[in-house]
Amino acid sequence: MQVAKMAWVVIIAFLLLGCGGGADKGETSSVKLEGENPRSSYAVGYNYGTNIRRIAGEMDVDALLAGVRDAYTGGEARMKPEELQQRLQQFQQDVMRRDQARRQEESSRNKAEGDAFREANAKKPGVKVTDSGLQYSVIQAGKGATPRASDMVKVHYHGTLVDGTVFDSSVERGEPVTFRLDRLIPGWVEGIQLMKVGARYRFVIPPELGYGKRGSPPRIGADATLVFEVELLGIEK
User: Disulfide: which of 152, 158, 164, 212 matches 169 by Cβ 3.0-4.6 Å?
Assistant: First the structure.
């Protein structure tokens, strides 16, 4: 919790300090990372840079560092307070517009790719499609009990996007996971209730049964179709 809180403080600090005048280029090239404090400071600074690059796009790095330095050392701001506020508000609006545009582009691309993938997959031998749009095929039949939504299920799974990118895999970690079934995405809730203990199924889950338009950043984008291979190892009442 503390690490997550610090990460937000880092981002907010950059949002608040992302305005300022120039700074001498090359000032940081001679910094020596010797000792605990310099190395920790560099780590925090690198984290700053990673976050600001992700959310803000192109910025004047020298001006950014000047703003951070002036504020951190208690120096006088090189802009009047009203301009600082106006610039900050404009910056935040620009970030939101870019993020909305990026997510819309991502959503359109993922939807088109997912629709084509599911259309082709539905025609493969052994693939069944439920009324909700969930696609599944039996890799290995089970002989045990079938879980209910309120059960705890022990599973091994391997999750990929339609291009084969792995976003989560208990198989790769080498350790099965136990979940309460009704707390998972709708595609899992429906699909695993089709299985018996010992079975291994392949699920192709449309976005409305997965993470939808919100996605699950950073690995699952908006409107992404998900592919899972799931082995049901057991049920805990």
Answer: 158
User: What are 72-131's pLDDT values in tens digits?
Assistant: 899 899 999 999 999 989 988 888 888 888 888 999 999 999 999 999 999 999 999 999
Say which residues have a Cβ less than 8 Å from residue 110's Cβ, sequence separation at least 6. 207, 221, 222, 223, 224, 225
| Catalytic site includes residue 203 | no
Catalytic residue at 211? yes
List 11, 55, 167, 179, catalytic entry: 167
Residue 46 a catalytic site member? no
Tokens coding 47: 């984290």
Question: Please, what are the domains in the chain?
Answer: 125-236 (3.10.50.40)
The per-residue pLDDT for 57 is 66
Phi then psi dihedrals of residue 128, to 5 deg: -115, 150
Is 24 a residue of the active site? no
